[in-house]
């Protein structure tokens, strides 16, 4: 890998900034001052430093975001703020994108990454990756709501996969577990039940719960265990 490519991959410097840092002697490779930005380096075997600090290399980045309302699950939008605007500065250059989407008014757990193959696998209907949502409704859920969702609801001409509904005691909301991600699925399900949504929050993805210590609007890297779990989920034929 080229030296300047390493710095753009980890999000520390642009190629132009890397070239400038090389000219100023700020970068070393295995203890020697780098002479050119196109120097070939082994990102996993060589020791690269910037201003004396070792550059930690990772091929991909993985962040949990506790998504707030008002943000679009996209990398750009002509009118509205997008979730990637909430990424910490050290990740901003890595080209992260959301794994799936949460509606603009939906809060909660969202994976941001630059790992396209993992994202594709996690979103594939064949994997049956579970997503759990907590919701509240304007009126109580009907008595047959659990049975209707478990049987696979019809939304227009679309048949939803079976979903597990666990109502609150007052039936003014609860949790619902899905294994797919159709457009506005929970909102449309509740509307079809005659109980329009008041609020919706994703509280788990692939059986990993939303970190209760992560503030709304904040990000944190996945732990090694969480990432390993996601990769196992991406390989599973079905998690149901």
- The CATH topology of the largest domain is given as Alpha-Beta Plaits
Number of strands: 15
User: Which segments are poorly predicted (pLDDT under 50) over 5 or more consecutive residues?
Assistant: none
CATH class value of the largest domain:
Alpha Beta
Structural class: alpha+beta
The H/E string reads HHEEEEEEEHEHEEEEHEEEH
Radius of gyration: 22 Å
**Mind describing the biggest β-sheet?**
9 strands, mixed
Name the CATH homologous superfamily of the largest domain.
Pseudouridine synthase I, catalytic domain, N-terminal subdomain
Terminal CA distance reads: 41 Å
Mean pLDDT rating: 93
The backbone outline, from C-alpha atoms, is elongated
- Which second-level CATH architecture of the largest domain applies? 2-Layer Sandwich
**Helical stretch count?**
6
Q: In total, how many domains does the architecture comprise?
A: 3
Helix content: 10-25%
Residues in β-strands, percent: 25-35%
SSE topology sketch:
Layout: H1 3-10, H2 15-23, E1 27-29, E2 32-33, E3 48-50, E4 53-54, E5 62-67, E6 97-98, E7 107-113, H3 116-123, E8 131-137, H4 145-150, E9 154-155, E10 158-159, E11 164-167, E12 173-178, H5 185-192, E13 197-205, E14 208-209, E15 219-221, H6 224-235
Parallel strand pairs: 7-13
Antiparallel strand pairs: 1-2, 1-3, 3-4, 5-7, 5-15, 6-7, 8-12, 8-13, 9-10, 11-12, 13-14
Helix pairs in contact: 1-2, 3-6
3D architecture notes:
This protein has helices at residues 3-10, 15-23, 116-123, 145-150, 185-192, 224-235; strands at residues 27-29, 32-33, 48-50, 53-54, 62-67, 97-98, 107-113, 131-137, 154-155, 158-159, 164-167, 173-178, 197-205, 208-209, 219-221. It has 6 helices and 15 strands. The strands form 3 sheets. Strands 5, 6, 7, 8, 11, 12, 13, 14 and 15 form a 9-stranded mixed β-sheet that branches. Strands 2-1-3-4 form a 4-stranded antiparallel β-sheet. A two-stranded antiparallel sheet has the order 9-10. The chain has 240 residues and is α+β, with helices and mostly antiparallel strands. It is elongated. It has 3 domains: 3-54, Roll (Structural Genomics Hypothetical 15.5 Kd Protein In mrcA-pckA Intergenic Region, Chain A), CATH 3.10.290.10; 62-125 and 207-235, Pseudouridine synthase I, catalytic domain, N-terminal subdomain (Alpha-Beta Plaits); 131-205, 2-Layer Sandwich (Alpha-Beta Plaits). Strand 9 (154-155) and strand 10 form a beta hairpin. Helix 1 (3-10) crosses helix 2 and helix 3 (116-123) crosses helix 6. It starts with a helix and ends in a 5-residue tail after the last helix. 30% of the residues are buried.
């Amino acid at each position: 890998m080229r030296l300047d490519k390493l710095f753009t991959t980890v999000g520390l410097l642009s190629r132009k900034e890397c070239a400038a840092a090389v000219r100023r002697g700020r970068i070393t490779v295995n203890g020697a001052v780098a002479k050119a930005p196109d120097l070939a380096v082994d990102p996993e075997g060589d020791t690269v430093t910037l201003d004396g600090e070792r550059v930690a290399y990772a091929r991909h980045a993985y962040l949990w975001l506790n998504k707030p309302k008002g943000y679009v699950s996209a990398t750009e939008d002509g009118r509205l703020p997008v979730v990637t605007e909430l990424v910490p500065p050290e990740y901003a250059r890595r080209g992260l994108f959301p794994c799936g989407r949460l509606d603009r008014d939906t809060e909660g757990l969202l994976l941001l990454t630059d790992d396209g193959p993992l994202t594709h696998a996690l979103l594939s209907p064949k994997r049956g990756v579970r997503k759990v949502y907590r919701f509240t409704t304007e009126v109580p859920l009907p008595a047959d709501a659990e049975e209707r969702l478990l049987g696979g609801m019809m939304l227009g001409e679309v048949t939803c996969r079976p979903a597990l509904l666990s109502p609150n005691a007052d039936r003014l909301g609860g949790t619902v577990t899905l294994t797919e991600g159709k457009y506005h699925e929970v909102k449309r399900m509740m509307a079809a039940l005659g109980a329009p949504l008041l609020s919706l929050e994703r509280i788990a993805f692939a059986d990993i719960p939303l970190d209760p210590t992560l503030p709304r609007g904040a990000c944190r890297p996945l732990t090694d265990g969480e990432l390993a779990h996601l990769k196992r989920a991406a390989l599973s034929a079905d998690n149901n």
